[in-house]
């Protein structure tokens, strides 16, 4: 196994079948999305009148978040509610992580381990389904004589039932299935490549409008092909609109040559990302072929000013002046790599690089960085 794995990674050989597979909560018993032929499609040249007759407009709230977790696995007590803004719930959550495993040689060159990804998915499931699902499932839980203790809820969430929990009767299988169907959010896709991990969750009532889920991973790390840097992208259709979510971890470093490497990573991701072809449908195979593209992650672009000047502007909360020195913003200028792309409004401090579990920037000589 080791020689074959190394050969595939080192020499860019065609991946084994399953490389485009992903994890999902959906099963064969779930409701299928609406068949494509039932949805009207418009062609160029059709009149504005026909367009207004055939096209329905839908509004959805999509949350996209990214977090470089520095090789740490989540504690069971970790509360993601504030980050995910669960009080103002979204219809779709797209969450990307970088460095969910330490980027050491054994992790980069060895077989992939999903334990950390599974733990992050568990924490996300707990946060998204904690409040709404508890209320929605109250009647089912009571009718199934389920204990209200935390232990009982955990047993249910993991899909197990027992007749040895403080004398409580065993749950009926159909009661458990009803409870599962009542889950507020379900995971439609998650995919890991070494330390890069993307996971997508949707409200149960939205799931039937999503189809054509596909994934594509591109390694840009060691030797230009390993997965310690690169991207994991997910393509999907929501009603008649195609979406592409690109979770990336680009080359690090503050030197001018490092900026060139980051741009090279982006160019490689755009060039090499290819979603599996569907022989019956004309679906986008490249990133730029989609109607809506959201690019996020640890892009590693830096501020091109001295550390003292950067911290002074941060203290003044002068975000506009800071952004004038942002390498990514420069790449959005005409002729730049991200020319034509739009970025959300920035009104917060740079998120790199903090002392762990604090709001203080790294100050020791070996870890000191210009905030970015």
UniProtKB/TrEMBL annotation:
Domain Inositol polyphosphate-related phosphatase: 58-371
Location of the region described as Disordered in the Swiss-Prot/TrEMBL record: 16-45
GO MF annotation, one: phosphatidylinositol-3,4,5-trisphosphate 5-phosphatase activity
Signal peptide residue numbers: none
Taxonomic classification: Eukaryota, Viridiplantae, Streptophyta, Embryophyta, Tracheophyta
Recorded superkingdom: Eukaryota
Annotated keywords: Hydrolase
Pfam family, one: Exo_endo_phos2
Hydrolase keyword on record: yes
SMART domains xref list: IPPc
Family (UniProt): Belongs to the inositol polyphosphate 5-phosphatase family.
Keyword Hydrolase set for record: yes
Protein name: Inositol polyphosphate-related phosphatase domain-containing protein
Single GO BP term: phosphatidylinositol dephosphorylation
């Amino acid at each position: 196994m080791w020689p074959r794995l190394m050969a595939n990674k080192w020499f860019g050989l065609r991946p084994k079948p399953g490389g485009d597979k992903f994890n999902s909560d959906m099963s064969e018993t779930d409701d299928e999305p609406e068949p494509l032929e039932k949805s009207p499609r418009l062609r160029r040249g059709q009149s504005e009148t026909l367009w207004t007759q055939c096209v329905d407009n839908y509004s959805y709230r999509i949350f996209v978040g990214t977090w470089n977790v520095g090789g740490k696995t989540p504690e069971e007590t970790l509360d993601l509610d504030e980050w995910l803004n669960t009080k103002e719930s979204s219809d779709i959550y797209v969450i990307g992580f970088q460095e969910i495993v330490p980027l050491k040689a054994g992790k980069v060159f060895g077989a992939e381990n999903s334990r950390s990804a599974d733990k992050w998915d568990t924490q996300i499931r707990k946060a998204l389904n904690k409040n709404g699902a508890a209320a929605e499932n109250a009647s089912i839980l009571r009718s199934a004589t389920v204990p209200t203790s935390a232990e009982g809820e955990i047993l249910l969430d993991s899909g197990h039932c027992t007749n040895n929990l403080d004398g409580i009767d065993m749950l009926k299988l159909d009661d458990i299935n009803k409870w599962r169907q009542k889950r507020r959010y379900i995971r439609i896709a998650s995919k890991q490549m070494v330390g890069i991990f993307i996971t997508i969750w949707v409200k149960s009532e939205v799931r039937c409008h999503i189809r054509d889920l596909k994934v594509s991973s591109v390694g840009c790390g060691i030797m230009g092909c390993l997965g310690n840097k690169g991207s994991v992208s997910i393509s999907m259709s929501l009603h008649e609109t195609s979406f592409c979510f690109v979770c990336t971890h680009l080359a690090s470093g503050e030197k001018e040559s490092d900026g060139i490497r980051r741009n090279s990573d982006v160019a490689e991701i755009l060039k090499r990302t290819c979603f599996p072809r569907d022989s019956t449908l004309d679906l986008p195979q490249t990133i730029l072929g989609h109607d809506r593209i959201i690019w996020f992650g640890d892009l590693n672009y830096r501020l091109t000013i001295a550390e003292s000047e950067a911290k002074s502007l941060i203290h003044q909360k002068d975000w506009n002046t800071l952004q004038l020195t942002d390498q990514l913003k420069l790449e959005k200028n005409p002729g730049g790599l991200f020319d034509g792309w739009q970025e959300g409004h920035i009104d917060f401090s740079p998120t790199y690089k903090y002392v762990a579990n604090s709001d203080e920037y790294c100050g020791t000589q070996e870890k000191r960085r210009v905030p970015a």
